[in-house]
Amino acid sequence: MATVKMDPVTRIEGHLGVTMETKDITTSTGTWTVVDKAYSHTNLFRGWEIILKGRDPRDAFFLTQRICGVCPAPHGETAIQALDHAYGMTPPPAAILARNILHGAYYVYDHMIHTYLLIGPELGVLAKYPPMVPPALGKDGIKALGLGSSYAACIQMQRKANKVVALWGGKFPHHTSEYPSGMTVKPTLDRIANTISNMTELWDFVVNVMVPDFMAIVSKNDHIAETVSTLLDIDFNGLQDLGPTYGNFLSYGLFPDYNDYDKWVAVQDGEEGYRDNALIKAGAWDGDFKKFTHTKIKEYVKYSRYDDSITGRHPSQGDVKVVKDKPGAYGWMKAPRYEDKVYEVGPLARMINTYGLNWKIDVTNPVTGESFTFKWKVLNPKGSVVDRVAARVAQTVLFATKTMEWAVELKQFMHDDIVNAKIPDYSYVPDNAEGMGLWDAPRGALLHYTKIRNKKIDHYQCIVPSTWNLGPRDDMGQPGPVEKALEGTWLPKLDVPTVANALYPEKDIDASAFGLGTVSWGDALAAALTPLGLAQLNMEEGGYNTSLAITVVRSFDPCIACGVHFIIK
Q1: Which of 86, 281, 329, 540 is the 20 to 30 A CA-CA neighbour of 224?
Q2: Measured distance CA(177)–CA(217) in Å, rounded
């Protein structure tokens, strides 16, 4: 048995490391190393709950956005919804729609960035699909080989989504426009028109570039399955065999309907529900649709650097009691559980809780009238790399469309209140109250809890998506989702170009523009990577190639900064 470490995991926010204990399997074609057990190390300490204590409750909207530079908007929204709940106020329709527009555009940005820049490079290599690989040879490589063409296009297009966020948020990142029970920015024809203009271009990119790029990856799945099965003499069905977890999926819901906001608030009150009329439903799927209630959430700390006295608590009773050198602890994140079971959160969880295992999303561009249908049948009911990426692509199609529809709908409320009329002015703060914010960040279920005493924050707790997915084992010994997903992953002792040549040995890439003639896929990658010093990409100590393992981790879109915030020296 060997120990293989990926530390740090790159292309993420924050500091994550993973230790993998291995085992060997012997088949007719040789002896191969796979992951036996995995341990997720979240190498920083979170102190935001301590920072917020004693502050003005409205500060939480601004301060919690600084938790993360990648996903500040969801933290702001969740903090505001906790204050909505504490204030006992419902935002008026104009505010609900404006919030939905802001966060719909944010989601389009985030899912595009993850698909192309964070997990796309590995998928492009595995599927022999140059547009998804980074443009390592620059503009000449894009022109001659298409190397990184979609990657580069995404960088340009995502700016348009950020413009829409800034239109409604004042700026991006760290927008400034939300207020308890409303917004501080008014709808105008100019904002609405600019929103629709930018989102129309994004919609065209998503439908005509992003979806075809993903389907091009999927088209190579059978080839990857057949080649790996032959090489290792195992049954490997393709990318759907990479990264399964437990088959439990948790969603808090997204994008409420202003006509049915009571069901949204009922879940904040602790009632069981689906948030039925929200665009994305709440739920706790365990093989079938189940209603969600936050009262079934607990956080465990047996393997976290916190005192055991706080284990097994609901977030409203959560606490931060640090034990830095605790025996057996290997992470700063806690281990959240729902009904004491391990649940995966994120895009796949949202799609399964909303659509089940067969998705058919029909959309029509409200400007051009162009219709489009995205179909997907979940390939692995326990989750997988390819199903998680499919979920992101599906939601980008859906949210790009809905953001335009909400902008059109908002025109009828242009002259209405943007803050609940029961609040006399922007200085109001309740004397004593508590509230729960339940939202879904792109990476998954996000919870903020606040307790107000004497107009100040007396207690604040966050449970963030990567705490659910990247947290350690719990008091019952159950591995977290990422730890579970890594089990059985192949760790070849071959570098990336060699693996690429094993998958695609034929010489069919015209690299004459770079003086190479016609070469194989692996040789083309070597030519691109070697000048940058990246020929040994993803090779770890002992000669293990962790490309497949790191693809599994990245399929969860880790964002460790959300969970931990203190550098250990």
Answers
A1: 540
A2: 39
Percentage helix, strand, coil, to 5, in the chain? 45, 20, 35
- How far apart are the C-alpha atoms of 273 and 438, rounded to whole Å? 13
Q: Which two tokens stand for residue 533?
A: 């010093």
Phi, psi torsion values for 72, nearest 5 degrees: -70, -35
What does the alpha-carbon distance between residue 519 and residue 507 come to, in Å, rounded to a whole number?
Answer: 5
Radius of gyration of the chain (CA): 24
Confidence label for 569 from pLDDT (cuts 50, 70 and 90): very low
DSSP strand pairing (444-453 vs 432-441): antiparallel
User: Which DSSP string corresponds to 171-223?
Assistant: SSSS---EETTEESS---HHHHHHHHHHHHHHHHHIIIIIHHHHHHHHHTHHH
The confidence score (pLDDT) of residue 563 equals: 59
Closest CA to 281 of 204, 355, 375: 355
Residue 215: closest CA among 245, 187, 239: 239
Q: Does domain 3-495+537-562 have CATH number 1.10.645.10?
A: yes
> If DSSP states are collapsed to H, E and C, what string results for 391-425?
HHHHHHHHHHHHHHHHHHHHHHHCCCCCECCCCCC
Strand, coil or helix: what is 166?
helix
- The whole-angstrom distance between residue 227's C-alpha and the CA centroid of its chain comes to 30
Q: Are 276 and 264 in contact (CB under 8 A)?
A: no
* pLDDT, position 513: 83
Residue 39 tokens read as 């341990």
- Is the pLDDT higher at 409 or at 569? 409
How do residues 108-159 score in pLDDT, each as one tens digit? Answer: 999 999 999 999 999 999 999 999 999 999 999 999 999 999 999 999 999 9
Q: Residue 383 is encoded by which pair of tokens?
A: 């989750």
Q: CA 166 → CA 83, 177, 189, 564, distances in Å?
A: 22, 10, 16, 27
Q: In this structure, are residues 123 and 137 in contact, taking their beta carbons and an 8 Å threshold?
A: no
The angle formed by the CA atoms of residues 298, 433 and 426, to the nearest 5 degrees, is 125
